[in-house]
Structures are given as structure tokens and as C-alpha cells.
Amino acid sequence: MFYRQAGVHHSNYKTDSALFPIPFDKWSIYTMLALGIFAPAIFGSFALTSYLLPWMIWAGAALSLNLLIGWAGQFHFGYAAVMSIGGYTAIHATLAGIPFEIALILAGLMSMVVGVIFGAAAMRVKGLYLALATLAMQFVVDWVLTHVPAIGGGASATLQAPDMTLLGFKITSEVGYYYVAFGWLLLVTLFLLNMRRTGFGRALVAVREKDYAASILGVNSFYFKSVAFAVSSFMGGVSGAILVFCFYHAVTPEQFTVNVSIQLLAMVIVGGLGSIIGSYFGAAFILLLPGALNTLVAYVSELLGLQIGIETLAHLPNLFYGILIIGFLLYEPLGLAKVYDNIRKYLMVWPFGYSKR
Amino acid sequence: MLKRVKLLLASAACALVIGQPAFAADEPIKIAGIYDLSKVYTFISPQIAQGATDYINLINSKGGVEGHPVVYTVGDHGNEPQRGIEGYEKFKREGYVLFDFLSSPVSRAVLPRAMKDGNPMLQTFVGRADAVDGDVFNWIFPMAPTYWGQAANIVKFIEDQAGGDAKGKKVAFLYLDYAFGQEPIPILKALAEKKGFDLQLFPYPLPGTDQASAWTGIRRYKPDWVVHWSFAGLHVIASKQMKRNKIPMSKFISVNWINEVDLKNIGHERAKGLKRSEPVVAGREPVIIQEILNELYAKGKGSGDVDNVGATYYNTGVAIYAIALEGMRNAIKSGASFPLTPAAVKAGMESIQGFDVHGLMPPVNLSSSNHGGDGKTRISEWDGEKWVPLTDWFVAESDLVWQEVKKHSAEYVKSGK
Known about the structure:
heterodimer, A: mainly alpha, 3% strand, globular, B: alpha/beta, five-stranded parallel sheet
């Protein structure tokens, strides 16, 4: 009833390759878009700054990583390093007086160059070995950030982000930061949505499924792997710069440690490999759920008047969080996107469920 | 079931009413302590929080700060900057006037916001070292010696042990190879040049469990002193390596991050002769700790395990919050209106003079340009049962330390904030 397919038929290629052929999909996307645009008016400033803004930025980063892992099938264990390169480049560039727009592009380019260098070296190996090679990138970048004062900022190890001016507007308000992050997420999402239906996207999928078979079909797998590393690193670098300028307002090596890389990987995997909406879900799950669980556990223990020590109170959410992750691995290993997909498929034929069989 | 919930709610409401009868009319002072209670800083934050909670409960039981109760909310940020920011954003909207994160990455991530919004943030022993410069970091309060200052004081101790002349002495600086461990290096290098002692650096990589090669180097170097910039379990690993390399414990001086748990793991007997730099008195002798034991723990009102009372980090927690509440007291005494504004708290903190919580620490003097105090520490030695102070509170090379502070804070200013 909801995702009604009746009356949707294609008489030319253009409608057939439309992004959202089913009207309900289209309208739900428009609703989400409207929600995103009017979020500052709908949500309070606390939700906007503490939940929506970081969620937007991390979803953008997760999407960028999903391109590499989900579409091209290349593991990356050092994605936080890619983001840190973007963040540091953007800060150094703006401090040197370069306009923010160009600094953003520079951030992307620098991440791309470093990412491709490591990616190319890693291209000799596959699977788990590639994962380890990219993990090495994380540690090399960490080392450079903490040992080269010209880049990392020396002993105090923090570089402050100067005020940013985007397209002539000085952005200093919460709403301004939100729109910058939202705009970037929109760009990334649109890019990935469209990439799926181009030859480039299909080539990536071919490489993911079996690079050997892909090259027999005439898809140069080395070329497409390199391009996937380049594009993903570029987007990761810009996401890193946005994270630093819109959310942290300062950069330290500790914001981009190996834990963050693993969190990003978890966002992609828990969300769903090769799924756009999955990256949104994954980012929300990994980023926001621990804090939300914390608040919930504190609230419940206060409500019931339980005398729980602060340490137990801090560890309980971790317990529930772990249970949730194991639960997902057990019952839906394909990620949150698959949960969404199941619901969608169910509603497609609802209330005439028998027609599926 | 419903009846039970109702009963619970009713008793909770009763508890709330009974708990604070004296302050019904007074507005509270709200402090947010959002710590890493579940990830990296767990070796210190629970004890700090316990000390802080006990001290605040003690003050509240005596009528609060100038008649105003103190609300101290403890939360967990799991060492994740975005959760620290979430906590900051939440509590700043609820009228909290002082924030404490006790984590370097989180403090560094919240600092730009605290500076922009004008909210006082405590930053004891973590985050930017140059934040003691109150002229630049108006809203940040480290209230403690910097690591630069601690290093300079340790060098002064070494010099005094050599009869006032450190020339020709060999000092091995062993450290965990990241920002925290690297921090004292410029000061040590400058002092080595000035005093004529020989300094050699021995870094070991994160996570610090592999110190073997650094210690082999130290054995060959045959130092007179080993200065160790590290924390918690890494001291235990160091002690094993010292035994293996036959370096006596008496040559070992640690930064302040070593406590009773580490000593127990090293072995109380084995740790004999170990020295550390100390910003706060450890043990149960200080008057305030006795008072907490008598007023709270003897009556079953302690906020945690009684064994922690008097431990190094517990006392540090008491000290931090004693200074903070003294700041509040100054603010109220100088006629600030309620609810307290962040600006009033800042002014109160900056007017703390000669406050030492009855000998728990060296007298703290803060001003609008100095948010770090005098930088006094002392060196104490473990005698197998307790810490024995080897020196009185002292400070050395203040000018050099402040040069370093100004150098870094100038870079902050340059970034246009």
C-alpha cells in the first residue's frame, strides 16, 4: 500500500533509470530533505549542535568510506588518518590566508594524494592484507602528526580553526555550521546516488565481486581500485575539514586515532555495505547511541532510585551497546540497511502479504 | 506492580525533599564533571570524582558555599570528544557554571566552545599546557603546575641532590612517545644547556607495553637519574625493566601520575626508593581528609570505597574542587547576584589567594593573568609504606616555564580567536 508499484511502468530508458521510480520513495526522500532544510526551525539548538550536526558530518564521512568498502570492495582501516590529513591541510591553508573554499578543495586533494600513495602500495595485496596495509597508514600519519611540529602544532598539539567564510558569508552561528555540514552531506549523497547508475559505479561493483573476473570483462581493476581510493580519500579529506571547522573548531591528533577509524568502519558495516541510507543509520548507531544509552540508563536508575556507583553507571551502557551489536550480527548481519529494506519490502505488498509467495 | 512503582516514586520524592531541607529557598551552584569513566582515563577519574563528590557533600552538609548548595553532576564521555561536547552543550543550557572534563582530547575539543561562550572550564593536568596564561585563555583554569613546571622542578631537585651543581650529571628522560610525554622536552633541553648536565631522550611507542629497547639504551647510558613521563601500568612495566637492567629504584623520578595501585602492582617492598613529583599531599593526615572520614565515612555517607580515601588521586580530586568552591565562595562574598554568572565565577576564581585547604597542597594564588598558580611541587619518596616528602614545596625556573607558555599561547592568539 505504501510503496505502491501499480501504475509505475517504464516506456523509455530515462524513467527506467530514474533515481526513485516508486512515488512513495520519492516523496519520503523529499520529506527527509525538507526536514533537513528546516531542521534549525524544528529542532532546538541543543539537538541541532549536539546530535544533528555531528551526525550529518559523520554520515558524510561514512558514505565516503562506504564508496571504498561497500562499492569497490577495498578495506580501509585507516580512514581517520585520511580525514585528519584533510582537517590539518584545511587549517594550515586557512591560517596561511587561503580562502576557505579553496582550502576545502586543497584538503581533499592532499588527502587524495596521500590516500592514493598508500592505496597504490596496498594494491599489491588484497583482503585482510590490504586492511593491514591501510592500518599502517593510520600509524604513519599519527606518527607524523605527533612528531612534526610544523604539521601537528608542537607540544600543545592543538591547532585552532580560524573563522570560516564560505562564498562570501562569514559563518559563526550554530545554524550556519549546520547548513555547511548539511550541504556537504547532500553533495556526497547525490554523488553516490548517481554513481550507482553510471558505468563507473558498475565497474566498481564488478571489481568488488571479483577483480579477476572484472579484468577478463575488460574492466581494468587496478585503475578502478586506484580511482576508488582517490575519490573516497578526496571526500574523506573534505569531511575531515568540515568536521574540524564546523564541529571541533580545533584539531588534535587524538581526534583522529585508530579508534575513530574503527568507529567509521563500524558505521559502514553496521549500517550496511554499499547502502546509502545504511551509512546514515550506521553513523547514528555508532555515534549517537552510546550517548543516548548513557542518558537512558542514568534516567532509569534515577527513576527507580537505584544506588548505582558512577563507574557501574558508565559501564552499563557499554554492556547494552555490546548486546545490541551482537544482536545485529546474529539477527541481521547485513546491517541496518537490510532492516530498512525488509520493512520496505513488507510494506510494498502490505496488506496483501500472500501475494509475495 | 503499579503500587510498587508509586511507592518508589514517593520514596524518591521524599528522599529529594529530606536530602536538602536547609536549601529550600536557596539557588544551587551547578558544576558538571563529565569524565572518562569507561575507557582510557579510568585509572584516575573515578577516584577524582569520588574525592570531589565527598568534598562537595561535606560542604553541603555544613550549609553549602555561603548558604548555597552545590550540585555536582557526574557523567561519562568515554574519552570521545563528541560526547564531551554533547555534555557541555547540554549542561551549559541548564545553567551550569563550571565544567570539568579531565581528558586531553575532550578538553581540547571543548576549549574553543568554552572560550567562545565564556564558560569557565577546569583543565587540571590535561589539555593545553599554555592554558595557564589567563590573559589569553580567559575562561580556562588549569589551577595546577604545568608539565613544563614539573620538569623544571625535578631538574632543580636533581641539582640540589648533586650539591647545587648538576654539571656532568647524566639524566635519562624516558617517556611515552606522544604529546603528553613529549611536552617537557623543550624545557629539559633548555635546562640541560643552562646547567650543563647531560640529557638523553628515551622514547617508547604507544601503547607503552614495549619498553625493552628504551631500557637497554638506558643501561648502556648509565644515568644518574631516570625521569619517567608516563602513567599507571606503564610504571609497572618500567619497574620490571629496571630490575632486568639492574638500575636501582632510587634513581627513578616519576611525573605526578603514579599512585598506590601502581605501587601495589610494582610491589611495596620493591618500590622502595622510588621518587615522584607531587602537587598534592597524599595520605590521610591532612585535616580535610580527616574531616571527610569523620563526617561522612564514619556515618556511612561516603560516596565510594573507604579504602580510596587518602589515595593520591582521591586527594587530587578533593584539592581541585576545594579550589573551585573557594572560587565560588569568593564570587558570592564579593556580592555576585544569583544565579551565579560564568563571569562572576571567573572573577571569583581569579581572586583566590593563599588557599591551601589546611595543608593539602601548597598555597594556591590565582590572578587574571595566571590561571595556573605558583607551580609549586615537591619531591617525595616511597619508603615501603608511605610517601615521605624529601623537599618542601618549591618552584624553579618560573621565567623559563612562562617563556614557553607565552610562546605557545601566542600561537593560539595568531589563529585569530
